[in-house]
Write a structure and sequence with these properties.
Distance between the termini: 78 Å
Strand order of the largest sheet: 1-14-13-12-11-10-8-2
Number of strands: 25
Strand content: 5-15%
Largest sheet: 8 strands, parallel
Radius of gyration: 26 Å
Number of helices: 27
């Protein structure tokens, strides 16, 4: 066996440097290209990714890390775990049935909603939740994992196939028609995994990366027993070396179970949890492989090569260089593709960064230093230290006035002085809304003409005056349309905003923006997170002009729309040279000023969206209290200084809230809206059990699907909500903003939603007036 340290990547971005996957998918859905063309373009992307990694000198290159929509959905298809409602016989192709699970489908012959979607651990990536039915059976139902291994092999690139492990797969799923826990299905699942591994062995694979990210969670005894049972079963294919892959956190007491599993190697995340290395070196056998994730797959800051090499050398001193792999901490899915595409970034800031392509180079440099000595790559280390020193010395990071203001925040600041029960009466009198008020979450379709208008403004083709005049005309048209449809609380549509985080970051100090720093959020949806590199403060009012203009056009209430401090933090690449809590508090103070300016301008309802509050929750319960304390305080700091008659809304989406219901209550928002249509309103039980007293807008339809929900469908969901909540609590709204949908999809859906509210008002509350109930 070679004594050489090897290198690895756990996964590579799927979307392409120019978002080729997004463009191909959306062209296919619009019927502009056929399935064969889509698959050809996907194959080209895979080949580019493999060659890029091979050219960088990576030894363990992943395959099956690519997906046309979601890797968890791919696993469900692989295992034959396809709910009956998606089995359309010969009506549509398997590819279209696959997309129906991700997006829903509506046609003359089919009408199905998409699978439930939620966040992938504490990232902003969304996965499709596996759905298990009563008497669930599994069977090998896709050749994708083998086909892509052979596809790379034909290019003379030997890959390490990636497979979501059986226990994590079950733990991430839900049993829909049975009281059994998903882990009860393990015995029937393992034979299919054995068959998959056997097929890979026959195709020539020697290693398989088997991802078990749930091993960084707090696991009960049933889960630990399941791991032992599962991997004893997988040991039936001894010719395949299994690399048990964990990431996003520390193993803790789960390490004792892991050590007993018959796997050839273990991967640990030393970017998120460097402190676990000592325990791993003590307990992990020296005759088995150890993969150490020393290059962070989730941020964009340049790696400290000296510090990382120190970790590598520590492992070598304890175990020798045999059976050691230097790797990314997790899949590079969460990083933009290539910094080389950034031609407009400030040169100094750019020198501090590394995207996925550059992280390949960092892994290769560390591996070479471990094998051949640091002197062979000394120039790379020297440049790395110069870049890190530049960042430490830069005055761009610091604003003393911001730091002083944060230090001066009083202990009680961020608490509304009047309890909600009293505020509610004041707001009912001031706002005069009907029972079951209707509204939307904020954004309306960003059509091609609006995007073109913005592009013309940015490239100087039209003047600022002409740009603003056009947007004002569209805003006025939208206000009239909402009045005509019958919505009770209107929005201005956010036509001036490219993105709910980027728009605010562009008007705050301490933020920088990329041209092509896209990462996948779900399916074809990509986001371009801002970079927070320095202290944050508001330069001037950010939203007041547009909100006040919209309110001037109507006698109905118009919501002011803001993105909350935690979401701006979570959906950015955040500086790592100070605590995240401090950066979040700086953002909160900037928003605090904006909220007060909106109120002064006559905006009586202000929505501060926090869809990322649950996403930021640490994976270990022991770390929750500290995070929830500073994150909820940041929200309150942004909102709590308004008058009692000003109604504060917030919005959350696609997350499990049962763990943080107390924290949601502590936000002290007057109204919360959230996604619940895909999960058939099941989340409402959490609010009912908690005796949540504030007002609630459970999303009545899934905006991430192109299908139009019927009036009957939405009245059914609304009646279900009223079976759990008091009618005085309930708002009627979609589950998220409408920016990504077309007007052809939005118009009928909102018309049906308003009609559903009218019908339920009439038949559910026949004796009540439509004024606010006390």
């Amino acid at each position: 066996m070679s004594n050489k340290v090897q290198s690895a990547v756990l996964g590579f971005p799927r979307i392409g440097a120019n978002r080729q996957l997004k463009k191909a998918l959306e062209a296919y859905w619009k019927k502009e290209i056929d399935a064969e063309t889509l698959q050809e373009q996907a194959k080209d992307l895979r080949a580019r990714n493999w060659r890029l990694q091979a050219d960088a000198g990576i030894d363990h290159i992943p395959s099956n890390d690519f997906s046309l929509y979601d890797h968890v959905l791919d696993t469900s298809v692989l295992l034959g775990a396809i709910p009956a409602r998606y089995q359309f016989a010969k009506q549509i192709s398997p590819l279209d049935a696959y997309f129906a699970m991700g997006r829903g489908r509506q046609s003359d012959t089919t009408d199905v909603v998409a699978l439930e979607m939620t966040k992938w651990f504490d990232t902003n990536y969304h996965y499709l939740v596996p759905e298990f039915e009563k008497d669930q059976q599994f069977a090998l139902s896709s050749a994708k994992i083998v086909d892509e291994f052979l596809e790379a092999k034909a290019l003379k690139i030997h890959t390490r196939p990636v497979l979501l492990g059986p226990v994590s797969y079950l733990l991430l799923g839900k049993s829909k028609d049975s009281n059994d826990k998903p882990l009860a299905l393990l015995a029937s699942l393992i034979p299919v995994y054995v068959e998959i591994l056997t097929r890979l062995k026959d195709a020539g694979a020697d290693w398989v990366q088997i991802d078990e990210p749930c091993l960084v969670l707090d696991l009960d005894q049933d889960a630990l027993v399941a791991y032992r049972s599962a991997y004893n079963g997988l040991a039936m294919v001894p010719e395949i070396h299994l690399l048990l892959t964990t990431y996003f956190g520390w193993l803790g007491s789960n390490l004792e179970t892991i050590v007993a599993l018959p796997v050839a190697g273990l991967h640990i995340d030393l970017a998120r949890a460097p402190g676990q290395l000592d325990d791993v070196l003590t307990l992990w056998p020296k005759d088995r492989w150890l993969s150490i994730g020393v290059v962070d797959g989730r941020n964009i800051w340049k790696n400290d090569l000296d510090a990382s090499l120190g970790l590598v050398e520590k492992v070598i001193a304890a175990r020798g260089s045999q059976r050691l792999i230097v790797a990314s901490s997790c899949s590079l899915l969460h990083s933009p593709v290539d910094l080389a595409a950034e031609t407009k970034l400030d040169a100094e800031l750019k020198s501090w960064l590394a995207f996925a392509a550059q992280k390949l180079g960092e892994i290769a440099i560390l591996t070479q230093a471990a094998n051949d000595g640091r002197a062979t790559v000394q120039s790379a280390f020297d440049q790395n230290q110069r870049d890190l020193a530049s960042r430490r010395r830069s005055e761009k990071r610091s604003k003393p006035a911001v730091q002083q203001r944060l230090r001066s925040v009083a202990a009680g600041e961020g608490t509304r002085p009047t309890p909600f029960a009293q505020r509610r009466l004041i707001q009912q009198k001031a706002l005069q809304l009907p029972v079951l008020p209707t509204t939307t979450i904020g954004s309306f379709p960003q059509t091609a003409d609006i995007r073109a208008l913005r592009a013309h403004f940015k490239n100087g083709t039209i003047s600022a005056h002409d740009y603003e005049t056009s947007l004002r005309a569209r805003t006025a048209e939208l206000i009239r349309w909402q009045e005509k449809v019958g919505l009770d609380v209107l929005v201005h549509g956010e036509y001036e905003r490219t993105d709910m985080v980027e728009y605010f970051g562009e008007q705050l100090s301490g933020f920088a923006f990329t041209q092509n720093g896209w990462v996948q959020s779900y399916g074809s949806r990509c986001v371009k997170p801002p970079i927070i590199f320095g202290d944050v403060e508001r330069r001037s009012a950010m939203t007041v002009e547009w909100s006040a203009y919209a309110q001037s056009l109507t006698t109905r209430l118009v919501k002011g729309m803001l993105t909350g401090p935690v979401t701006i933090l979570q959906w950015s690449f955040v500086r790592d040279d100070q605590p995240r809590s401090q950066t979040c508090a700086q953002i909160a103070l900037a928003l605090h000023d904006e909220v007060l300016d909106l109120e002064k301008a006559g905006i009586r309802i202000i929505q501060i969206d926090e869809p990322a509050l649950r996403e930021g929750l640490p994976l270990r319960a022991s770390e929750w209290p500290a995070y929830l304390a500073w994150s909820t305080k940041a929200f309150r700091l942004s909102a709590a200084s308004v008058q009692d008659a000003t109604q504060i809304h917030t919005h959350m989406c696609y997350a499990e809230f049962s763990d943080i219901i107390d924290a949601i209550a502590s936000l002290d928002a007057d109204v919360i809206s959230f996604e619940t249509s895909r999960s058939d309103m099941e989340l409402l039980d959490t609010f009912a059990q908690h005796a949540y007293t504030a007002e609630i807008g459970p999303g009545l339809y899934d905006i991430h699907s192109p299908r139009t929900p019927s009036v009957e469908e939405m009245t059914g969901l609304l009646r279900k909500a009223l079976g759990v909540l008091n009618a005085n609590q309930v708002w009627v709204n979609p589950d998220c903003g409408l920016k990504t949908r077309s007007w052809a999809e939005v118009e009928p859906a909102l018309i049906n939603m308003v009609e559903a509210a009218r019908q339920v008002r009439a038949d559910w509350l026949p004796e009540r007036q439509f004024g606010r109930c006390p």
